[in-house]
Amino acid sequence: MKIVMLGAGYVGLVSGACFSEFGVDVTCVDPDETKIARLHDGIIPIFEPGLDELVTKNVQAGRLAFATSLSKCDPEVDAIFIAVGTPTRRGDGHADLTYVYQAAKDIAAYLKPDHFTVIVTKSTVPIGTGREVERIIREANPKANFGMASNPEFLREGSAIGDFMRPDRVVFGTNSEQAAEVMKALYRPLYLIETPIVQTSLETSEMTKYAANAFLATKITFINEIADLCEKVGANVQDVAKGIGLDGRIGKKFLHAGPGYGGSCFPKDTLALVKTANAVGSPMRIVETVVDINARRKQSMAQRVIDAAGGNVKGMKIAVLGVAFKPNTDDMRDSVALDVIPALQKAGAVVQAFDPVAMGEAAKLLPDVTWSKDTYDALSGAGVAVILTEWNEFRAIDFDRAKSLMAAPVLVDLRNVYNPDEIRAQGFSYTSIGRA
């Protein structure tokens, strides 16, 4: 089979590389000439564990290629996946579908009347987008022979390849049985390992993606509010999370208290769902509250650091450990660091930070930060150390060495990496989340 992946960003590149590993001939198309040139040179534009090896392997095998436009692709492919960005639109919070609709216009010019092609929305798009893409293509090219499908991605940054190769489920919605047969053929390798395949309508598939992300964001927000209550009443949120997570109806995942969710999906998708719901007169009060609580929570984390420092950080060096929104990625989108670091700087602190992967991206967004060469370089002279991202190397800090380097032994652990008693026994003032 042959497919085109429109967009060589996170979703498009990972999905394209994984499909090529299944034996599909894949061309990833992106108008960014620099990105495509770098991919031809074997340079991966994003950090995702294992992706560079997977891309190299399949390029060498002749199953994965890159191009700057559809016109340079095989004229007859089985499917074209739209995997372009859908960022939050400035001003009103809706998903910006500019790139999706431009992709639809490009596809319309490419399609032939004598060859059937499935057009698949892989990007996270508001309910009804698939129908609009179909309308755009048919209006521009009435003779086009195609069917529509929605196939949302459920990839977690840092473990995306495993999520694609061994998913909990595959969801796709179509408007024709012919399109459905193509989708089943593409995912046959997963069907053979008994992966649940959920086939729906276009609208249901689009809704499923938003519902999944909104539910997970709600789960994170719930445990964060429980954590705040635990601090007030003397309970331990980690034990609470374990106690409720063992209930099969609840599950243990996404019950890790912290500074709030970030990344490329949850913030924009929860907001887009709220806007869609309000537009059709079916408001989602729970999700609206989740969006509000999470925004407030991230903004409040800097105050926790200031309180741990005694209420005043003016002129103080503060070591920030981790700036990516989660480990195993260089993604800075809606990272809590983008709220915490500017707030600390506004309060007069001098921030020196270290992240194993994300400092290049972070430096574009966070001016006046001193970027350190390693953990201990960041700790040198600091009056407070803050763990913002739970990278593995922050789980084994030499606290004797840290204490000798720091101006004061104060640790604010916003990811609950350490045991409070153990850290305090080493002479540190220790603050965490949801543990009195």
The CATH architecture of the largest domain: 3-Layer(aba) Sandwich
Uncertain regions spanning at least 5 consecutive residues: none
Side-by-side strand order of the widest sheet: 3-2-1-4-5-6-7-8
Helix content: 40-55%
Number of domains: 3
Beta-strand residue percentage = 5-15%
| Contiguous helical run count | 17
The CATH class of the largest domain is Alpha Beta
N- and C-termini, Cα separation: 57 Å
Q: CATH fold name of the largest domain, please?
A: Rossmann fold
Which structural class is indicated by helix and strand composition?
Answer: alpha/beta
Q: What's the story with the biggest beta sheet? A: 8 strands, mixed
Shape: globular
Notable characteristics:
single chain; 436 residues; alpha/beta; Rossmann fold; N-(1-d-carboxylethyl)-l-norvaline Dehydrogenase, domain 2; 3 domains; eight-stranded mixed sheet; 14 strands
Structure description:
With 436 residues, this protein is of the alpha/beta class. It has 3 domains: 2-200, NAD(P)-binding Rossmann-like Domain (Rossmann fold); 210-292, N-(1-d-carboxylethyl)-l-norvaline Dehydrogenase, domain 2, CATH 1.10.1040; 298-431, Rossmann fold. Helix content is 43%, strand content 14%. The chain is built from 17 helices and 14 strands. It has helices at 10-21, 33-40, 51-60, 98-110, 129-140, 160-165, 177-186, 188-191, 202-233, 237-245, 266-279, 285-308, 337-346, 359-365, 375-379, 399-405, 420-425; strands at 2-6, 25-29, 64-67, 79-82, 117-121, 146-150, 170-174, 197-200, 317-321, 350-354, 370-371, 384-387, 410-413, 429-431. The strands form 2 sheets. The chain has an 8-stranded mixed sheet with strand order 3-2-1-4-5-6-7-8, with helices on both faces. Helix 1 (10-21) packs across helix 3, helix 4 (98-110) runs parallel beside helix 5 (129-140) and helix 9 (202-233) packs across helix 11. It starts with a strand and ends in a 5-residue tail after the last strand. The relative contact order is 0.09.
